């Protein structure tokens, strides 16, 4: 199977995912196996939305592979300000780079842009759509902490607009995982995602809840997300749900001792700082895993080793 571009986790099979995670684990154990492998290669960074972890870990990953980055910089300082289309921008920058990383506020932007370029394009977040490279580091962290089979996970917060949730849910449907989705009614998973998950996985694999209490004690992993304020059409709607889903030591009272708490970050107030120093907290480790996982992805895409 060949992937020229990585647009959504829907396109990934279990074998694809395991190839990336195994390669990331090998790099994590001994980064020298890929040191210098992509010397003289350049990664084009096109971020039309704010980013800290994704952008910096892609940059760190490319540099640790011996390559470098060319960065479009902020939208304010680019020709986008002059009205250049996304299709033109990616066609120009593919001439400067061996692969492209795109983050854009519009859902579907990465899929559209990928039609205009021949170099691999990685979706680093398209609006409320998908964020497949985040998913790969989420899966890596889950596999390290709890394993990916016979897993019970709770995914909590903004399931409607949270692109990391959409990508993670599709990817997990390749494994023997019970997924509990916990959110206010207004922020439930989009119905088309629920429909797809039912098609991809046994009905017993998916449940929706409004409170974490009923399922907490059964969870191996609790994946907490931020309410995506920037995606709400109306600030009043955001205010109605802001601060509703918070985890602190009291909430975790009935959790299993080996529960792993994750968060794609940034957090606002979803996880109290008192959780940070407990054995539950895996969210900083999760962010650090972004480098070996993105090194693995870039290495596989740039050498065409995803062709099998
Ligand atoms: N950093 C993640 C994203 O870009 C999660 C978030 O922003 O809440 O989707």
Q: Cα-atom Rg, whole angstroms?
A: 19 Å
CA(first)-CA(last) distance:
5 Å
Largest sheet: 5 strands, parallel
Please write the string of helix (H) and strand (E) elements: HEHEHEHEHEHEHEEHEHH
Which residues form runs of ≥5 with pLDDT under 50? none
Ligands (ions, cofactors included): aspartic acid
* Percentage of residues assigned to helices: 25-40%
How many E-type strands? 9
Structural class, from helix and strand content? alpha/beta
Mean pLDDT: 94
Instruction: Specify the number of helices.
Output: 10
Strand order of the largest sheet: 7-6-5-8-9
* Approximate shape: globular
Structure write-up:
The protein is α/β, with parallel strands linked by helices and 308 residues long. Helix content is 33%, strand content 15%. The protein has 10 helices and 9 strands. It has helices spanning 14-29, 53-64, 86-93, 109-114, 132-145, 163-172, 191-200, 235-241, 283-288, 290-303; strands at residues 42-47, 68-71, 99-104, 121-126, 151-156, 177-182, 206-209, 221-224, 260-262. The strands form 2 sheets. It has a 5-stranded parallel sheet, covered by helices on one side. A 4-stranded parallel sheet has the order 2-1-3-4. Strand 6 (177-182), helix 7 (191-200) and strand 7 (206-209) form a beta-alpha-beta unit. The protein is globular, with a radius of gyration of 19 Å. The mean pLDDT is 94. It binds aspartic acid (ASP). Residues 125, 131, 163-164, 226, 264 line the site of aspartic acid.
